[in-house]
Write a structure and sequence with these properties.
Strand content: 15-25%
Pfam families: AARP2CN, RIBIOP_C, Tsr1_G-like
GO molecular function: GTP binding; GTPase activity; U3 snoRNA binding
Protein name: Bms1-type G domain-containing protein
Number of strands: 29
Subcellular location: Nucleus, Nucleolus
Distance between the termini: 96 Å
Helix content: 25-40%
Low-confidence stretches: 397-413, 419-456
Strand order of the largest sheet: 10-9-15-7-8-14-11-12
Number of helices: 17
Largest sheet: 8 strands, antiparallel
Radius of gyration: 36 Å
Main location: nucleus
Mean pLDDT: 81
């Protein structure tokens, strides 16, 4: 039975194996045969060593996290955990859940007077807050400080035919905002479940299946009707490792328990704002600047470290009077060091004489006088025998020739391409060309600003007409982006004097320091922003390792005194603290100074109105809140120049550039639009991209013309210009067509602005000839940085 009919096994399909497995198989087979070399053995040992190093590194990271978690649990100075209850529909009764949780934590049937409770039964300190349903701004501010986001839903909405389900449109919009700023640990509390066990289980399964697509993967779901179910939730919450957004752990912050203000005796119109609460995330130095959300940046006069009003070892006879005594008992007072305190520097003071030339020296003045005398003594060629009287009537031919040549050169030179500026770099000529039209353009911009600021005086019909005009402009910008018409009554070289042509948008040079506006003298810039950010964060970590004599320790109960706060701002903050807690966050170094910030933004799907560049919006960046007028642009990865976008179009990301206080990324962004007699609407969301005043944003305009006669590669184009002088002026700029042809202007034809063009390929009669012109644009400086009406 042997021989040729012996069994032949199928060979291994090595083409499906990985390189590593084939290498291991090869080395093992060679070592078995005794043919392995030193190089293979050394490589194998190196692979084993690298793998062991990775295992050891991951083990050390895991041990560090475990040690930090144990330290947090065992520490008695950690701040209370903040639980924020969000209602996802009008059916959810969030107030009853809050009362049940506070009664469960206190262990008494009486309603607690404070939102913070130290539970001896759970060995846990918890702050329970209720987010007002429908108030998106308040929900956003409370979500920024939440350690656990507890979403409350009602099972009754599953059986009501008139309901929108467990999540109504308001709840869906609230969820979208919370995702934009970053979700902390989340859970869902399901109320109003049936009493029957089978029906209760089925209703809970239906609720979980309908909510799972909207919630994170690690979200927990709890029934929350009875005291036993809430007890189970609290035990699991106590052992749960909570996560929070990364940006929140970069700065120290305080959630206010009490807010008041004390008038200053020295300066009229200002006061000292006093906030008390637990210090979180990092240590706080009295030399730091603090930012009160919606109010601004300020310095500290002192920091009082108070005795903890909610200790875990609280005895049963502890009453409210003793709690107030605890809150007012000062353990330590920290005052700022004048030599080390961070200055409250917002804007740079511009020097109007910084760009002026120095006074000429005596030698330069003598040289100029000598040259003027030489001009006066210049000899003229006259016929022999001509008298002085006759010479006065003779016109100098050289002067007339020079004048004619000047006119011809002015007509012939025209617009210079950006690549030709290196050879023909004459700033005086550029200034002469543009100086005639600067005053006119300033008047046009001033009129536009006045029209935007006079919206309050306009009637209802005028406002509706303005909104219709903006919507029409938005639709036209989507259909015909950047196309403009050449005016008939103004020469194109005057109307577009600030624009220039580029040979290549990607590779042509553009100096970022050229022709900067006056606002750039008021801002700050970094030589190396990434290095500065690393240094600032390193300083913050060094502060955490500092002694208790120089800074307040994280987890301690402090009272900060914020000085030089306007009285109207302080009263507004005190009034807002009755509804939601006020947050005061410590600023990193340089974060009070103004610069140019760039955000990656996307229009909110539920916001229907068009969003125009340089329109006023409210920017919420981390804990900060300020007014800004963004300038939208595209984000070109392979170029240092970016094209302006007149509108923020839906469905895609753009870059919003604003003048604002410096912030270190990464930080979330929520853009709000203020509306009359209504809550602010969420217009866009995004994140902080960079801080760079040298980012070049170019506004592009496209002049269009139409072929009149076509002959192979040549064409006569009309309606792009209306006089031959404009054709000569723009002759150096290349033209292109919408069907992909590229060419140049050859010469003007006639007196009505027609021109001959030559293209690289045959052109069709129905094609459109275009010319691209560019100028650099900058954001608009905000009239006020903080909105006093919020």
């Amino acid at each position: 039975m042997g021989g040729a009919r012996s069994q032949v096994n199928k060979p291994h399909k090595t083409r499906f194996a990985s390189k590593a497995s084939r290498h291991v198989h090869r080395t093992s087979s060679l070592s078995a045969k005794g043919k392995i070399g030193k190089s293979e053995g050394g490589h194998r040992a190196a692979v084993k060593g690298a793998r062991a190093a990775r295992i050891q590194k991951s083990k050390s990271i895991r041990d560090q996290k475990r040690a930090a978690l144990l330290k947090e649990k065992r520490s008695s100075v950690s701040a209370p955990r903040v639980v924020v209850l969000f209602g996802l529909s009008s059916y959810a009764n969030v107030n009853s859940v809050k009362k049940d949780l506070l009664q469960l934590l206190s262990g008494d049937d009486r309603q607690p007077t404070s939102n913070t409770i130290a539970s001896s039964a759970y060995r846990l300190r918890t702050t329970v807050l209720e987010a007002p349903y429908g108030d998106l701004v308040a929900c956003m501010e409370m979500a920024k400080v939440a350690d656990l986001m507890a979403f409350v839903v009602s099972a009754n909405s599953l059986y009501d035919n008139h309901s929108d389900g467990l999540i109504d449109p308001t709840g869906a919009q609230c969820l979208s905002i919370l995702r934009a700023i970053g979700l902390s640990s989340t859970c869902v509390l399901i109320r109003d479940l049936p009493q029957d066990l089978k029906s209760k289980s089925e209703a809970k399964k239906v609720s979980i299946s309908s909510l799972s697509s909207e919630m994170p993967e690690d979200c927990k779901y709890y029934a929350a009707d009875t005291k036993e179910e809430l007890h189970k939730f609290m035990w699991l919450f106590k052992e749960q490792h909570l996560t929070c957004p990364h940006w929140r752990n970069q700065r120290p912050y305080i959630i206010s328990n009490e807010v008041c203000f004390e008038p200053d005796s020295g300066i009229s119109g200002t006061c000292t704002l006093v906030l008390s609460g637990y210090l979180r995330a990092h240590n706080l130095s009295p030399n730091q600047l603090v930012q009160v959300t919606g109010a601004g940046d300020f310095q500290l006069s002192k920091v009082d470290i108070l005795k903890d009003p909610f200790p875990l070892n609280e005895r049963r006879g502890h009453n409210l009077m003793e709690s107030e005594e605890h809150m007012n008992q000062i353990c330590q007072t920290l005052t700022p060091d004048p030599s080390a305190q961070e200055p409250l520097l917002v804007e740079n003071t511009p020097d109007p004489l910084a760009g002026e030339q120095t006074w000429p020296t005596e030698a330069e003045m003598e040289e100029a006088d000598a040259s003027n005398k030489e001009r006066k003594v210049k000899k003229r060629k006259l016929p022999r025998g001509t008298s002085d009287y006759q010479a006065a009537w003779i016109v100098d031919g050289t002067d007339s020739e020079e004048g004619d040549s000047d006119i011809e050169s002015e007509e012939g030179n025209g617009m210079v391409l950006d690549e030709e500026l290196e050879n023909n770099n004459d700033p005086e000529k550029d200034e002469d060309t543009i100086s005639h039209f600067t005053e006119k353009f300033n008047e046009e911009e001033t009129c536009a600003d006045t029209e935007m600021e006079d919206d309050e005086v306009m009637t209802r019909e005028q406002i509706e007409a303005e909104i219709k005009k903006i919507k029409d402009t938005n639709a036209e910008d989507e259909e015909f982006p950047d196309e403009v018409d050449t005016p008939l009554d103004v020469p194109a070289k005057k109307r577009f004097a600030k624009y220039r042509g580029l040979k290549s948008f990607r590779t042509s040079p553009w100096d970022p320091k050229e022709s900067l506006p006056l606002e750039y003298a008021r801002i700050f810039a970094f030589d190396n922003f990434s290095r500065t950010q690393k240094h600032v964060l390193k300083t913050m970590h060094e502060l955490d390792e500092g002694s208790t004599r120089t800074c307040a320790i994280v987890g301690s109960f402090v009272r900060i005194h914020v000085k030089n706060v306007p009285i109207d701002v302080a009263s507004r903050v005190c009034h807002a603290s009755k509804a939601i807690p006020v947050v005061a966050s410590g600023l990193l170094q340089h974060e009070s100074k103004m610069s140019v910030l760039h955000f990656s933004v996307k229009k909110n799907d539920l916001y229907e109105d068009p969003i125009k560049s340089k329109e006023a919006f409210i920017f919420n960046v981390g804990f900060r809140q300020f007014m800004a007028r963004p300038l939208f642009s595209s984000d070109n990865i392979n170029s240092d120049k970016h094209k302006l976008e007149r509108f923020l179009h839906p469905g895609r990301f753009s870059v919003a550039s604003v003048y604002a206080p410096i912030c270190f990324p990464a930080l979330p962004l929520v853009v709000l639009k203020k509306r009359d007699n209504e809550m602010p609407a969420v217009a866009a969301t995004g994140s902080l991209k960079s801080v760079d005043p040298d980012r070049i944003i170019l506004k592009r305009i496209i002049l269009t013309g139409y072929p009149q006669r076509v002959s192979k590669l040549k064409a006569t184009v009309k309606y792009m210009f209306h006089n031959p002088d404009d054709v000569r002026w723009f002759k150096p700029v290349d033209v292109w067509t919408k069907h992909g042809r590229h060419g140049r202007i050859k010469e003007p034809v006639g007196t009505h602005g027609h021109m001959k063009c030559v293209f690289n390929s045959g052109i069709q009669q129905h094609d459109t000839v275009c010319m691209s012109l560019y100028k650099r644009v900058f954001p608009r400086w905000p009239e006020r940085l903080y909105d006093t009406a919020l």
